[in-house]
Design goal:
Largest sheet: 12 strands, mixed
Number of strands: 12
Radius of gyration: 20 Å
CATH superfamily: Aldolase class I
CATH architecture: Alpha-Beta Barrel
CATH topology: TIM Barrel
Number of helices: 12
Order of helices and strands: EHEHEHEHHEHEHHEEEHEEEHHH
Length: about 350
């Protein structure tokens, strides 16, 4: 079970309202803390020893440190967190003390004005202070997740220079940049306004790689240089710089599934092991022994899904429902390919 990890979305609440993300409807109450601890224990007793804390924004949960300390005391060998970074600065050291061994920071732009336009919160300085706190106050690694859009494509080089500066300063690669193609993955792209925004901002894999190549020759590597590999992502090294990067272009690649082993817990108390599996199971409210049994069942279920759907896609019609619940009617992937094709024809004319 060493390759399995618990991907625990402890809240659907967020202190940002990013234009490409959540439709920001009514938020559900979420899983009670005592049940979060029961799920952690039940997963650990199924020999899952890694947990990745997500949301929403997990740092808006006031007792997140208490939950992390609980996981650490249970014996979890690795804890990681994905955060937008606004609240990270004062918490960097306490998070490490609670057991966090790796940080994923979502950061799409280094331009303060564009940052405010995308997130609706003008706090880029706080996010950069959070990154600096992790780098200077801890010895942990950071993955910066940049959603690449037309508006920020020209900033790819700035992110590479940011990582190169820190990595050179500390004499090792502690920052990995992950360039994420702006692909349909959240409820906002299901609305008419959201589809228009995606169509205007979508960039191809080729465009991203061409922008990266301006910083130097790139060489494909077989594995992620850091712990916590994403099996779907492709990794590269930039020659002559202390920078590696990952590229995730699911739309260009057809949403092929990787060999992941994630037991997902949603803020609504549901559990799933594959984005391709349209059936999720309620874990919240079950007695402890039934929680433990359900997790064992879910681990077995993944093998059944692989055998039954070898050509499965990393895509759900109701986008983002594993994070936010079913916020609106779903959309087939083929519809987004039609939108992209129309956009390419318009751009070429």
């Amino acid at each position: 079970m060493n390759n399995w990890h618990l991907r625990f979305a402890v809240t659907s609440a967020c202190n940002f309202k990013c234009k490409y993300c959540h439709s920001h409807g009514k938020l559900e109450k979420g899983i009670p803390d005592d049940e979060i601890k029961e799920i952690l224990k039940a997963a650990y007793e199924n020999n899952i020893q890694r947990v990745h804390w997500t949301g929403g924004e997990p740092l808006v949960k006031k007792n997140i440190l208490e939950l992390m300390h609980y996981a650490k005391d249970l014996g979890y060998q690795e804890q990681s967190i994905t955060t937008n970074g606004q609240l990270l600065g004062p918490l960097a050291r306490p998070l490490v003390d609670a057991g966090v061994s790796r940080f994923n920071i979502s950061l799409d732009t280094l331009d303060p004005d564009l940052f405010g336009e995308v997130t609706t919160v003008y706090c880029l300085d706080q996010v950069l202070q959070g990154l600096d706190a992790v780098m200077t106050q801890t010895d942990k690694t950071v993955k910066i997740n940049m959603v690449v859009m037309k508006d920020n494509l020209h900033e790819v080089g700035r992110f590479i220079k940011l990582a190169d500066g820190y990595n050179t300063r500390f004499g090792q690669e502690r920052i990995l940049i992950r360039f994420l193609q702006f692909f349909p993955c959240q409820p906002n792209q299901l609305s008419t306004e959201g589809q228009t925004y995606w169509k205007q901002e979508y960039v191809t894999e080729k465009e991203i790689l061409m922008e990266i190549a301006k910083e130097g020759a790139v060489e494909r590597t077989l594995n992620c240089p850091f712990a916590g590999d994403n099996p779907t992502m492709r990794y590269y090294k930039i020659m002559g710089k202390n920078v590696s990067f990952g590229l995730l272009a699911m739309f260009s690649w057809g949403y092929v599934c990787g060999d992941c082993h994630k037991l997902r817990i949603t803020p609504q108390g549901m559990t799933s092991v594959c984005l391709n599996d349209n059936e999720m199971f309620k874990i919240q409210g079950l007695p402890y022994e039934e929680k433990k049994a359900l997790i064992a069942k879910m681990i077995d279920r993944r093998n059944v899904l692989i055998a039954a759907h070898p050509e499965r896609k990393h895509y759900r019609k109701n986008l983002g429902e594993v994070r936010f619940g079913k916020t609106m009617q779903g959309m087939e992937l083929e519809e987004f390919y039609k939108i992209a094709a129309e956009q390419q024809l318009t751009a070429a004319s």
